[in-house]
Structures are given as C-alpha cells and as structure tokens.
Amino acid sequence: MSNRLKYEKSPYLLQHQDNPVNWYPWCDEAFKRACSEDKPIFLSIGYSTCHWCHVMAHESFEDEEVAELLNKNYICIKVDREERPDVDAVYMSVCQRLTGAGGWPLTIVMTPEQMPFFAGTYFPKRRRFGQEGLREILEKITELWEHHREKLTTAGEEIAAAVKRDAAGEESLNSIAGKREPDSDLLHEAFRQLRGQYDENFGGFGRPPKFPMPHQLLFLMRYAFSEAVPEAMRMAEETLEAMAKGGIYDHIGGGFSRYSTDERWLVPHFEKMLYDNALLILAYLNAFQATRKKEYADAAKNTADYILRELKDPQGGFYCGQDADSDGVEGKYYVFTPEEIKEVLGERDGTEYCALYGITQEGNFEGKSIPNRIGHTAVFGWSPEDERLKRLYRYRSERARLHKDTKILLSWNAWTIIALLWAGQLLEERKYLEAAVNAERFLRENMTDGKGRLYLRYCGGEAAHAGQLTDYAVYALALLELYRGTFKAEYLREAVIRAGQMLEYFEDRRSGGYYITASDAEVLLTRPKEVYDGAVPSGNSVAAAVLCKIAALTGEKKWQEAADRQLQFLAEKVRDYPAGHCFSLFTFAGVLYPHKELVCAVKDGIPRELAQYLKKTLVYGLNVLVKTEDNEEELAQCAPHTKEYPIPDSGAVYYLCKNGACAAPVTEFCELVNEM
To answer: Which of 165, 208, 441, 589 has a Cα at 20 to 30 A from 31?
Structure first.
C-alpha cells in the first residue's frame, strides 16, 4: 500500500512510496498532524544514489516491525537532500553539533515545533557491534515522550537555541569585525596546508576515504601559474593522473565515481554524480591547457561523453547521477572475472585486456576485479574508440542495470554547462558546445517561474522548489562563461539579471555574505550561510566569482562595491582554514594577481585570431568584451562604458587595460599577445 510519497516527483522519495512507513514529504500537513496528535517528528534525509540510505531503507523502512513503531508513535517525514538543501543544511548542523559528525542517511527526531532532540546517521535495525539499533532508539524515545516529555522538549529547545546562537553569534562577529582584505598570505597558507596533507605515494589529500575535490586542484594549478611554484602543479598533476588510472575512473564507460575507499584510488564508492564529473572535466581541461598533455584531454573527453550518453535528458538537461548498486549489490555493474572478459573479447584480446586493466583470478574487490591502470606508465590502455571496449560496455549494460536519479538540478546543470563549454572550445568538439547551449535553453524555458525567479529542480515534467543561492550563483557563472565562449550579449545581460536577484534576495547587508535561502523563502529553524567548500564550491565562493567577473566586464560601480563586500566577507571567513575554501581563494587570485580587460570593437563576428588565442592559451585574469554592430545596443545596457568604443569600418580595434591602466588601442592582435 502506497504512502503519501507516491504524489512526489523525486526519484528518492518515490523509492520509498511503497514502504510500510506512513511517510510524508516535508509539508505543513505533516507538522499540523504532529501537533494535533501530539507526536514527535521522525525526519529522514537522504538521496537517490546513496548506498547507506538504501541499506537503512531495506533493513528498517521496509520492515513491518519498525514501520509499526514509527506509524504508531511518530509522524514520519522523508526529505531528498538534493531537492531541499536548506532543510538538509539546518539539520546537518544539528547532527554535527550533537555528534561531532554527519553524513547520509541523516536521522533526526524533533518536536512538532521543529525543535530537534536526537540526531544521527545510519542505524541498523537492531543493536550491532556496539552501535545502537533503530528499533531500540525508537522505543526509548517513545517511552521518554510519554513519561518524561519535559526532558525531550527542554533538550530540543536548548539544541535549537544553541544552533541559532551559533548562527547569530557568527553574524554578530562578522558585523563587528574589521574589514579584512584578501591577501596573498591566505593563498600561501592554503598551499602549505594542502602540501602538508598531500599523499606523496598516491596523490590526493588526507586519509581514505579520498574525494576528488577538483576545486582544490584548480586552486593549485592557479597558484602554480601565478607564483611559479612547480610543486603545486606537480601535486595537481599526480592527483589527476592517479585518479584517471584508478578504479574510481570507469575505464569502460568513462566518468568518475564519488570517492575512493582506499588510498590508491582503486576501490570507489561506485555512485556517479553529475557535479563531480562536471568539475573534474574543468580540472582536467585546466591541466591540459597548462601542459598540453593528451591524457588530460582524453580524461575530460571521456567524462564529457559519459555525461552526454548516460545522464542527458532528451529535452536538454542533465540528470543527477547513477546508483552504486545493481540488483541490491554494490559495484556489481562494474566488476569482472577474467573468464567474463575472455568470453566477451575472445582469448587473445581478453588476455590482453586483463593484463592492461588488472583483471585477475583473485580479484581486487570481493573476489572480482575493478578495471584499473594502477602501476602502468600510461594513463590509458586501449583507446576509448576501440571497438573492443565498446563491446565490453554493451555487455556490461545488458548484464546489469544501474538506477538513475532523473532529477534535473539547476546548479548542477549550470556546472555541467560550464564544463561542456570548456570541453567544446579546448577540444574543438561542436557537440559539447551544442549540449551546453541546449542545456541553458532548457533551464531558461523550464526552470523559471512567472515572476522570473528560478526553480531548484525539474523532474517528471514539473519544476519545483524555490531556487537557492547556489542556483542563482552558479547559473550566473554559467551565463558568464557562455558569454565568454560565444560573445552573445544576451548571456551577459541574463547573468546581470541573475546576479541582481542574488543581491536582492540572498545578501546579508548587515553582517556580510549570502544566505542559502531567499528572504521570502520558508522560515526554518535557522537561515544558514555556507562558506566552506564541500563536494562543490560553496554558494558564497561562487557569488564572489560572479560579482568580480561582472564588475570587470560592466565597469559599473554597483557591481564593484558588491564584489568588494563579498571579498571582504570571505577574507575574514577563510583565514582559520584557507585550504577548505579553495574556490574562494581561486577568486582571490583574480584580484591579487595581474588582471586585464580587453574590449574588441569589430564590425561583425569575432576575429579569428582572438578566438584561436582564447582556445589555445592559458590566460588567467583576462576579461573580454566583443562589440559589434549587432550587439552594441544590448551590450551597452550591461556595460555602459562600451558606448565610447567606436566600431571600425573594417578590421578590429583592440583596447587593453592592465591592472587599472589602459594602453593605446591597436588594430593588430599580434601586438597584444606579449601584453596578455
């Protein structure tokens, strides 16, 4: 018998629609019923491709005994963290405060007034190896609720007050703190911290589990370029090569898994997420542009092809990701025995593949083998275009299937647009450029409401949930990148609109920074800000990048002042642990190191030499405007100073400014190259 989740669109919520638990989505009805029936709320937060979410669901939420306890004594709410990152952020902060850790599935018990008094992550059904069981927890809380209610309500009020104090105290400190400017010491300290955590044997940072963290690699490459520190580039390159050789990379179908459970990048947690792959494309392309090493271009290309092949919606958007499990078994889809390989490829080719990709009788994962290139000199064995690899891919696809989370999230799609745009330009592949343009069109046409505001997600023909800071910030960044790649003024105009909404609805003008949720959004326990970079760069760090780019392109005082406010806010926030804020530091580098603004006035079209230069050359800190007869009016609306640049009757005129000083205009692009 279905519960109320059957009316939802989220694949994660729909996975639970047939649970015997009487689940509600996050809604007023659930809280009203909790009040009327005088029951606590049992809140469970997870996501569709989360392995331990599946485990807890199978052990407990599909279990009749546990369901009976929950239905009798609790009002139960299921939340997809990817649909409601605001709810997740609030209660994850509760869990971290109470337990010192966090993760998913996130388990919260709270009063009908949303005052949390219990928090944890995964729990087995019954006590196991010293870990409390969910059944025992529920029974204990039920007894306390019935006989010692005041202990729970008091605890809930104290916890809620503490979380609110944390947020309020942080804002108070921000409001009275002196304005700190970004400085190069923050970048140097971040490099020292990353160097101290670096794994000299296998690349990456810290102990397992090891996450790709592409924004750290982007920072290291930027730092290496600007400070002439080869060691920073070495760390980034060794990490990129180790990941591409490891089992975290799919050597048959392309793309990267979520993280590695071991130090060698061999055994991944097999789920694949859109945002990881988009950001890794950017990291590999940055390395390719800096070194021209083909293996980096190949890794980016194979990952982009994976996204287009596996995650693309027919309408143009991109899905969230693919599950780690097949037929209830983690990693089953990806592992092989030598006999399987030889059956598909034949004895000779099968033996060669096993030698190249580490497929052995003893295996490297539960008796079977994850294909990998660890220990080999070259990153790749066979070409991705090799028909033998395509045969293995077809066999694997028919042997087992992966669940796909078909939600389309605006911010993740925006990162993908940026990645595909860069892939199209640097790899000179038109299909990636077209996919980026089509994805932006999809977002604009399907994820904007009647008032011009953004939605957070689209699924099953329905757009829902008010856009949050990362949606506005990353979408604006994607629009700016589309402008850089096409020089169509409509993208710049739209980026300015989205940045304006970001200022209007999300900025904290008193204490600095930007809230996760808009000023007119649902009121939760707290209104959090996120500055620390997690799996993706924080909304506040991306907001800084957007404001700096718009200020440079438009020359408008309003945007420069907004950029300065945000840079000062971040400079204060990142100083305790700069390495945890690498995307903010990447943006700091844009203002600390030499920066240039170039206006190209041309009758029509983009000069070929300029286009080729931007494709082939790694240039940091360069912002370019192209003014033509077709776009001059629209461009002037965004960047009024461009009115003063006359369009020549023929050829092009280039106006270059460096660090606030403008040079004389030139008509030959080659005269500028040494200056950029």
So the answer is: 165
Virtual torsion, Cα 292, 297, 299, 305, nearest 10 deg: 180
Q: Which residues sit opposite 329 in a β-bridge?
A: 326
For residue 641, the one-letter residue type is: H
**3-state SS string for 198-213:** ECCCCCCECCCCECCC
Both structure tokens of 50: 């989360």
67 CB contacts (<8 Å, ≥6 apart)?
19, 20, 21, 22, 61
Pairwise CA distance, residues 1 & 87, whole Å: 28
Q: Which two tokens stand for residue 550?
A: 């718009």
pLDDT at 382: 94
| Burial class (CB within 10 angstroms; exposed 0-12, middle 13-18, buried 19+) of 532 | middle
Instruction: Select from 177, 174, 182, 179 the least CA-distant residue to 508.
Output: 174
Tokens of 592: 């600390």
Span 395-447, pLDDT tens digits: 999 988 888 999 999 999 999 999 999 999 999 999 999 999 999 999 999 99
- Return the biggest CA–CA distance within the chain: 87
Which ranges in 427-555 belong to alpha helices (H)? 430-446, 469-486, 489-506, 539-554
Distances, alpha carbon 596 to alpha carbons 80, 142, 426, 573, 619, in Å: 43, 64, 21, 27, 10
Q: Which residues of the chain have pLDDT under 50?
A: 176
Measured between alpha carbons, how far is 476 from 509 in angstroms, rounded to an integer? 20
Contacts of 577 (CB under 8 A, 6+ apart): 193
Backbone angles phi, psi at 326, to 5 degrees: -130, 130
* Helix residue spans in 258-337 (DSSP H): 274-291, 294-306
Place of tokens 């599935």: 105
The answer to whether the beta carbons of residues 156 and 525 sit under 8 Å apart is no
- Res 172: pLDDT: 52
DSSP 268: E
Return the structure tokens found at 230: 């080869």
Sign, CA torsion 385/391/392/394: positive
**Whole-angstrom Cα distance, residue 15 to residue 421?**
34
E strands along 69-163, which residues? Answer: 75-80, 106-110, 116-120
According to the model, what pLDDT value does residue 37 have? 96
Please check whether residue 410 is in contact with residue 447, taking contact to mean a CB–CB distance below 8 angstroms. Answer: yes
In our burial notation (b when 16+ CB lie closer than 10 A, e otherwise), range 497-527 reads ebbbbbbebbbbeebbbbbbbbeebeebbbb
CB-side neighbour CA atoms (13 Å) of 21:
32
How many beta carbons lie within 10 A of that of residue 97, not counting itself? 15
pLDDT score, position 171: 55
Q: Is 29 exposed, middle or buried (0-12, 13-18, 19+ CB in 10 A)?
A: exposed
Phi/psi-derived region of residue 313, left when phi > 0, alpha when psi is between -120 and 50, beta in every other case: beta
Q: What is the pLDDT of residue 178?
A: 55
**pTM: predicted TM-score of the whole model, two decimal places:** 0.92
Tokens of 613: 């230069």
How many H-runs (helices) and E-runs (strands) does the chain carry?
24, 19
Beta bridge partners of 652: 602
SS (H, E, C) 322-387: ECCEECCEECCCCCECHHHHHHHHCHHHHHHHHHHHCCCCCCCECCEECCCCCCCCCCCCCCCCCH
Alpha carbon distance 139, 102 (integer Å) = 23
Query: What DSSP designation does 644 have?
Result: G
